[in-house]
Write the structure tokens for this entry.
Amino acid sequence: MRIVTYILIFVAIVTTALPLIQTTYWWVRIFDYPRVQITVIAIIAQILTFIYFRHNSIKYLSISTFLLTAIAYQGRLMVKYTPLYPVQAPGAFEPIEENTFSILMYNVRMTNDKYTAFLDLIEDRGPDIILLTETDQAWVEGVEKLDAEYPHYLKYPLDNTYGMILYSRLELEDTEINFLVKDSIPSIFAKVKLSSDVLVNLHCLHPEPPKPGTPTYERDSEILIISDRVVNDERPTVIAGDLNDVAWSRTSELFQKRTYMLDPREGRGLFNTYNVFVPLFRYPLDHFFYSKHFNLVDFERLPDIGSDHFPIMMTVEYVDLKEREENSKNLK
């Protein structure tokens, strides 16, 4: 059992330290993901260290210092996504219907053919906007009955797991399909016209994940390219997509610092969306970020309907920033 203890100590310390290196190597950045799991390993290692090494004060204190530092560091990163942390994105109070809209986002898993389960979910939830990623031509055909209910749409099916479909009940203007980093990986931009005639910028992304032999440079670049586009744009903006990144990574934190975009997860929970099939290794990969023009009405992870990702749905209310400032002054 002492050998197991040494292994756990090594794993906890090394996997905590590696992501501190500023690099795009996949085998380093992959450890951005399992912060919760690494913390659990470190706690178990600390317990075993006490059991086996407490009589050797030098060894016990040395190992405990590293393990407790690892636990504290991992906890600092994750506490933002628990109810123990202040909510970053304000909630809505009596939202105005004409300024309120909902988005359902779903990485369908290209090989998943449970179209009926998805259509049933849409009928049940009735989102105003639907973003699908990993869609091929089979998915375009499998959900085409939505064309009647969602008359505004962009479809870009691909057989490389990077196809996208955007459906909207609300009018879309200035729509674009862009290729920010690679010709094989599209992103979508559209202006969504609310019932109140307010235009909301919508950026939809699905960059590459870190995987063996592939650095994270291109994924990080796509996320940061979008940050360059929104940083000086004062219009209301929503960013949605399977970013193949966790909210506590260096890239995500840099993105938020540059753009001042809000993350509805902060202070509310992780809302892990991947992997449906492996409960012990689930991460929040599907994200919504938005500008300070919105109040959060609802945020929910939806049931498993066949993909390796859970669908996720957000409802927000647009609020004029000048009115928000005036209301804040009045409350003071």
The CA atoms of residues 223 and 255 lie 7 Å apart. The domain at 97-325 is CATH 3.60.10.10 (Deoxyribonuclease I; Chain A). Residues 57-78 form the longest helix (22 residues).
